[in-house]
């Protein structure tokens, strides 16, 4: 998948944070030949690694938006849209200084520390993979992770280009436990929604619900969850069956002043 030119600019800027102007240029080693079956490539194996010298500034800006790099990946869990990138970047440099290999199990993320490992689950078919995050991006609205060609192939999203996914950090300790193999055809997940807000008071949730309906967002509702003995009222829209529908709803919410809507799984 093509990505914005900002990816290249940002990657170069992040690499410069650790580069030495007097160092002689080095020729990148040749990449290994592509495998006959990218779907057979094993997942990345989480291991303890120091933060890379490049790609981890406290913050950086792309297209006028500021991104703050997290101090740790521990506890990270997010749902949203995944995309993938391949031939146009194959052999180039990632934000942490690695050589990008579209046939390796890697990914790009805007704020996770480099490197780290995450499990990505395709919410439309239940397939999941573990990838090593070593690059920055995607710098496109509503996208939360950019996958290598190999990872996208194993998740079944190459043809459509994007998918609704869940991204969860994986620690080396957690990965040491045996994991059941991912089935070729996993059971379908529950329905997906866009969450516009969450409130401790029902009245606040009702006000947002009325606001959404007044602007023509009719498929909105309030759901109550009890968490540690306390009620939480979530305002949701949906279900959303596709990336296109998710993008449409998120843009509608952004237009009425709700910029932080997110994907929610029932």
Sequence of strands across the biggest β-sheet: 3-7-4-6-5-8
Strand content: 25-35%
Uncertain spans, ≥5 residues at pLDDT below 50? 15-27
Helix content, binned percent: 10-25%
Rg, Å, rounded: 20 Å
Multimeric organization? single chain
Distance between the termini: 30 Å
What is the averaged pLDDT score? Answer: 85
Largest sheet: number of strands, sense, barrel closure: 6 strands, mixed, barrel
Total DSSP helices: 5
- Principal-axes geometry comes out as globular
Main structural class: alpha+beta
Question: H/E element string?
Answer: HEEEEEEEHEHEHEEHE
By DSSP, the count of extended strands is 12
Structure description:
It contains 5 helices and 12 strands. It is of the alpha+beta class and about 270 residues long. It is globular. The model is unreliable at about 15-25 (pLDDT under 50).
Keywords:
single chain; alpha+beta; 5 helices; four-stranded antiparallel beta sheet; 266 residues
Topology, pairings included?
Layout lengths: L5 H11 L42 E4 L2 E4 L8 E9 L20 E3 L7 E7 L5 E8 L7 E6 H7 L6 E8 L2 H4 L16 E8 L2 H13 L5 E8 L2 E8 L5 H13 L6 E4 L1
Parallel strand pairs: 3-7, 4-6
Antiparallel strand pairs: 1-2, 3-8, 4-7, 5-6, 5-8, 9-11, 9-12, 10-11
């Amino acid at each position: 998948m093509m990505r914005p030119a900002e990816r290249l600019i940002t990657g170069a800027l992040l690499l410069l944070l650790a580069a030495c102007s007097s160092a002689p240029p080095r020729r990148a080693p040749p990449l290994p030949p592509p495998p006959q079956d990218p779907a057979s490539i094993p997942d990345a194996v989480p291991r303890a690694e120091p933060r890379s010298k490049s790609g981890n500034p406290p913050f950086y800006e792309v297209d006028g938006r500021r991104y703050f790099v997290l101090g740790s990946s521990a506890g990270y869990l997010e749902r949203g849209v995944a995309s993938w990138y391949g031939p146009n970047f194959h052999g180039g440099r990632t934000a942490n200084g690695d050589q990008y290999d579209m046939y390796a199990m890697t990914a790009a993320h805007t704020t996770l520390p480099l490197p780290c490992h995450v499990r990505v689950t395709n919410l439309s078919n239940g397939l999941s993979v573990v990838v090593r995050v070593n690059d920055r991006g995607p710098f496109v609205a509503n996208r939360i992770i950019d996958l290598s060609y190999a990872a996208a192939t194993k998740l079944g999203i190459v043809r459509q280009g994007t998918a609704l996914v869940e991204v969860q950090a994986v620690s080396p300790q957690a990965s040491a436990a045996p994991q059941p193999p991912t089935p070729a055809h996993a059971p379908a997940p529950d329905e997906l929604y866009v969450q516009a807000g969450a409130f401790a008071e029902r009245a606040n949730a009702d006000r947002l619900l009325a606001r959404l309906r007044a602007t023509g967002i009719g498929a909105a509702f309030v759901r109550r969850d009890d968490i540690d003995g306390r009620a939480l009222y979530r305002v949701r829209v949906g279900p959303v069956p596709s990336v296109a529908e998710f993008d449409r709803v998120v843009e509608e919410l952004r237009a009425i002043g709700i910029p932080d809507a997110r994907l929610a799984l029932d």
